[in-house]
Amino acid sequence: MLIGEVARRSGVSARMLRHYDALGLVRPTGRTEGGYREYSGEDIQRIFHIESLRSLGLSLREVGRALDESGFTPSELVADLIRRTRERIAAETELLTRLRRIGAAEPAGWEDVLQIIALLQGLGSESAGRRQRAALSSVGEVSVPVEALVEAALSETDPNVAGALRWALAQSGDGGLALLAQGLGSPAAEVRKRAVQSIAEIPDGAATALLRDALTNADLVVRRYAALALGGRGVADAVPTLVDMIVDGANDADAADALSALAHDPALADQIATRLVHRLGDGAIEPSARRRLTQALADVPGTTTSRALADLSHDEDRAVALTATYILKLRDAR
């Protein structure tokens, strides 16, 4: 069979068949009297074998080894092909993500495209300073898509950069809340923590709703950050967790401040005082926890607090009694 007919039947161009011949991959078995290449049935079968192996991503050199080396085993080469394919897919996926983000930013011209690319590269830089500058520059006339900000915020380990990213997310509105909510369910504790911290800085009703839900999160750290944020927003649901934080000595000063802010609402003051007093009466808690609870009463107004402090001024724990007495004097002096 002559080269033209082989090309038609195999789908391999005559030029490529000549290239195979030059490389020694497929040498035609015969020649016609006129000197034209003449392929046998075995030659054509080898051509199909070559094309099959090329479809797996093998180079022509690797194809030649596979077909001609008697001791060749495919396992190592196939493993290498799998690795290369995964790397190629990862690179293509990264490119697709970048293109989608550029499209989402709706650039008006190529200058905008270049600026967005620079910001995205900045967010992914190994330099913390460059990441921070990119975060602070990401909100403006040409802004980074919120998806990129969320991804960066959930993976950032530098506290200064993380703060800049949370600020940028807060400026961008509630567009990233759905993605941050997914972060709350991450299997990685650090990602869950970063997610709730980011949500806490978004001054939005939808963010407050997410923080309320986070009070029942299985992660104790998430619950505590949510409670602190909700306390500052005047949400009474945070009170039980805040009191528990004081008992546990976990960010207890911040928890007491949050309770104090909530206690400015007269309707909540007695509720907070009652819960603090109830925990003070728990004989199972440590003396240090009772002292923290007593200190927390200092900024809670109302008669319930005053009566509790009067009783505590005679407490068996001298430190508790002295703290209560001091607080009462301060309250009387106001």
Largest beta sheet, briefly? 2 strands, antiparallel
Succession of helices and strands: HHEEHHHHHHHHHHHHHHHHH
Helix content: over 70%
| Radius of gyration, in angstroms, nearest whole number | 35 Å
Verbal overview:
With 334 residues, the chain is mainly alpha-helical. Among the domains are: 70 residues, Orthogonal Bundle (Multidrug-efflux Transporter Regulator, Chain: A, Domain 2), CATH 1.10.1660.10; 101 residues. It has 19 helices and two strands. A two-stranded antiparallel sheet has the order 1-2. It starts with a helix and ends with a helix.
Provide keyphrases for this structure.
mainly alpha, Multidrug-efflux Transporter Regulator, Chain: A, Domain 2, two-stranded antiparallel ribbon, 2 strands, 70% helix, DNA-binding transcription factor activity, DNA binding, DNA-binding transcriptional MerR regulator, MerR_fam
How are the SSEs ordered, and which strands pair?
Layout: H1 3-10, H2 14-23, E1 30-31, E2 37-38, H3 41-54, H4 60-68, H5 74-104, H6 110-123, H7 128-137, H8 146-155, H9 159-171, H10 177-184, H11 189-200, H12 205-214, H13 220-232, H14 239-248, H15 252-262, H16 266-280, H17 287-296, H18 303-312, H19 318-333
Antiparallel strand pairs: 1-2
Helix pairs in contact: 3-4, 6-7, 7-9, 8-9, 9-11, 10-11, 11-13, 12-13, 13-14, 13-15, 14-15, 14-16, 14-17, 16-17, 16-18, 17-19, 18-19
Organism: Sphaerisporangium krabiense
Domain HTH merR-type: 1-69
Protein name: DNA-binding transcriptional MerR regulator
